[in-house]
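User: What would this chain look like folded?
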Amino acid sequence: MVYEAMLLFGVLFIAVWLFSTLLQQRHALYLRSALQDWLFFVIGIYFVWFWSHGGQTLAMKTWRIRLVTTDGQPVTIRRAIVRYLLVWLWCLPGLALAWALGAKTWMLVLIPAANAVIWALMIYLDPHRQFLHDRLAGTRLIRVAGLPPKAKSG
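Assistant: Here's the prediction, encoded as structure tokens.
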């Protein structure tokens, strides 16, 4: 996830630059909600495109992981969108709870972190150790075989 975040940082940097330039955003709070919606859309396009066109982002290719349906078929755009929306359950319930409780200081970190830990531990409820969002979306992550060794030139 760290490698994926580093790659996504570049994509988001360009997206924020475009948004700020085209809409003449001169202050961080000006059009803040619109910027958040734009970034949600850009992140969604990034993941949905890669998942539905080969099943791998660049980071997933590096780690030899591919997203497929539960029966091993390529992921459709619709299924990729469903998975993208479900992945947000890693953090949104915790953030919503922190907001509802009026959390301050460290509680703003602990509540969403507890949400992520609980979500991650849900793999133990699945017999194939898949995340809940994959189970609900009808997808799974598989390992991709490595490259064959290079033939020696004579």
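The beta strands are 65-69, 139-143. If you want, I can go into more detail on any region.
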